[in-house]
Amino acid sequence: MRGSARGPPRAHDLTHQGFFCRKHRNGTDPAVARKYGGTLLCWQYAASVHVYQLSEEGAADDDEGEDGVPSYREWILPCRDFDGLWESLYYDIGIKDRLLRYASSALLFSEAGVDSNLVAWNRVVLLHGPPGTGKTSLCKSLAQKLTIRLGHRHLGGGSH
Fold first, then answer.
1. Could you tell me if residue 137 is inside a domain?
2. What residue stretches are annotated with the ATPase AAA-type core domain (predicted)?
């Protein structure tokens, strides 16, 4: 990987090494911001770059399920199976960003040891709807997104 004498590695160099970079503006993808707000000016943009490497391993299945159907599947995140899933999901305006902000805040509260008797917040998110509406995909993509954004805070997280 390039670095040191020539400066930090560029996104192009990292991509060829199997690493990926994502940029966002306060939880919103720059392409979305441009779509609704025109061209972004430098003082309107707070860049945040996340460098991560996607796991090539597939899902690990539980062997103890009934009738040969696994009771759960486990992935090492971030994984190639979920790459681009977040961007491919379309819901009512703001649902994905609100859910991401809520989950990020809940994780940060937990990490900081916030006393739930002093600061009350609902720790349950209920997703409901008929089969095939994207509930599982939303959960998978949210887990991937949180791993990429907050993985550097946790041992074995998604940032390298």
1. yes
2. 125-149
With respect to residue 14, please indicate whether it lies within any of the assigned structural domains: yes
> Does 159 reside within a domain?
no
pLDDT block averages, 10 residues each, the chain of length 160: 42 47 49 57 71 86 74 89 92 88 87 84 85 93 91 55
| 160 found inside a domain | no
Query: In this structure, are residues 139 and 127 in contact, taking their beta carbons and an 8 Å threshold?
Result: yes
Name the pTM for this structure: 0.65
Domain range holding 97?
4-153
Q: What is the 3-state secondary structure (H, E, C) of the chain?
A: CCCHHHCCCCHHHHHHCCEEEEEEECCECHHHHHHHHCCCCHHHCCEEEEEEECECCCCEECCCCHHHCCCCEECCCCEHHHCCHHHHCCCCCCHHHHHHHHHHHHHHHHHHCCCCCCCCCCCCCCCCCCCCCCHHHHHHHHHHHHHHHHHHHCCCCCEC
Domain count, the chain: 1
Cα separation, 119 vs 101, whole angstroms: 17
